[in-house]
Amino acid sequence: NLKLLDDYIEQATVAGCTPAQLALAWLLARGPHVIPITGTTRAAHLEESLGAASVKIDAELITRLDAIINQTTVVGARYNAATQAEIDTEVFA
Description:
There is one protein chain. The protein is an all-alpha fold. It is built from five helices and no strands. The protein has helices at residues 5-15, 19-28, 43-50, 59-68, 81-84. α1 runs antiparallel to α4. The two termini are 21 Å apart.
């Protein structure tokens, strides 16, 4: 999955934000029914995350992001087998 990172970071640069802000802005662009919940242990990271609300991304950028990171380009499980067995929200049909 690291091979996807360079293209993703390039898109964050185009959008004028950090990669973390782009991830949150990408989720926020999905609509009001999607509410990203971030976690952090540092105030600076919280401030960075809050900055995502002001990141403006257009349909073209969303299309590029969707092409870079999706169910076919990302490989491997998010969690180990023991943890995945306890989760029912991370399975794609």
